[in-house]
Amino acid sequence: MKKxxxxxxxxxxxxxxxxxxxxxxxxxxxxxxxxxxxxxxxxSYHAIDSGKEICFFxxxxxxxxxxxxxxxxxxxxxxxxxxxxxxxxxxxxxxxREITENFGIVFVGHPxxxxxxxxxxxxxxxxxxxxxxxxxxxxxxxxxxxxGPIHAGIIEPGHFRFIxxxxxxxxxxIHLGYQHxxxxxxxxxxxxxxxxxxxxxxxxxxxSVGNALAHCQLIESLSEFNAPEDLQIERCIALELERxxxxxxxxxxxxxxxxxxxxxxxxxALRTTIINTTQFWCGNRFGKGLVRPFGTNYPLKENxxxxxxKILSDSGERYFTVAERIYSLPSVLGRFDGIGAxxxxxxxxxxxxxxxxxxxxxxxxxRATHPFQYYRKRRPEIVIQQTGDALARGVLxxxxxxxxxxxxxxxxxxxxxxxxxxxxPVYNYKLKPESFAVSAVxxxxxxxxxxxxxDANGEIVQYKIKDxxxxxxxxxxxxxxxxEISDFPICNKSFNLSYCxxxx
Length: 504
Fold this sequence. Notes:
Radius of gyration: 22 Å
Number of helices: 16
Number of strands: 14
CATH class of the largest domain: Mainly Alpha
CATH topology of the largest domain: Cytochrome-c3 Hydrogenase, chain B
Mean pLDDT: 93
Shape: globular
Strand content: 15-25%
Number of domains: 2
Distance between the termini: 37 Å
Largest sheet: 5 strands, mixed
Structural class: alpha+beta
Helix content: 40-55%
């Protein structure tokens, strides 16, 4: 019997009945076999309630050859206890916790089976914020420091519980999920294409383009639509503009945390020029409305191309100049170098993705390993750092922004030479019945994964979303171990993980 369904295309839809169904013992053995290789990681592992049984689906990405493996198992309701895979496959711990939260399934042997978030329809309504089982360490010299959940500024709330010996952090537990919005259910309940597009742009405000593209790819794959070359190029340009803008903004924030005001204010201004360029293109600084299924309302035009070239040439050179100064100043290096390091082994074991992985010498970038849109024909150079510390996470932004600007210029040249065939968006689409599709996009933070299932009428019956932060919040917790508690803001900002992308 075939163990798994294999595909090379991360935007390819398949029939649900073509996904092999294994016994749980077979499922566990296959998972252990696949994840024993360091170049494989979990794109998604989740369950759906089909009525009489719970169906489990695991999606594995192979970074070495671009393959994606899909396999499943089913358990009749009520589901008996299942042996946890987390002790052997650490990166699955967060996915098993989510399955427990949604369905009440007990994974025997899970070392840390706590709630991921607090949705209104969670299986166990007795689990509330006020009785969250925080980890404890005893001792006369041990003390705890709680930060949040009320957070200054406009980002969403999270609680950080530090266990310290003096100023040294022994353990950090990150408690999120205060504002669960039920977005995945809205994708099912809202049966209008335009509303779903708007929802996708609202998953995480700093990644509107990335999530909108993941959604559009999913819808188009379930409609067997291949985007024309000019539309693919435009989508990649939009995604890289988003990457550049956030990387420059994050550089500003890092400078603020170490008191380097020149770097902060210069990068703040330069980030504004980039997002204003996106506004010039589509009327919204964050790219909302720009990415739509089957077409676009804002095809590139000559004046838009001229504006993009002008701003990237000017602001790009200004950013590279100030970044070179930032990462050569002893006062800045003294606060970044060696601070908040995550090892390569830790990154692999927790299934880190995106920037968090690449700063630890793990070459994990969907644009290169599982390319989509025009990345299939022209892949950017993937930037890798070795040390896994705050300095590496800062420098990676600098180098990635440089590569993204170079990449956009190449795409603009290509766009001008090809035939234009882009049409307006389509929202009253018809999807393939009883099908399954996965769509992965490399957002600026890292890997975004959207998964959808359709019923016999072609209606979406389940929609799953995974932000890179799902993997990477644990990397932040590891980064502050044995650091002074005053290093936490720098470590936190150097990852810049998403609260709302996690708290769907």
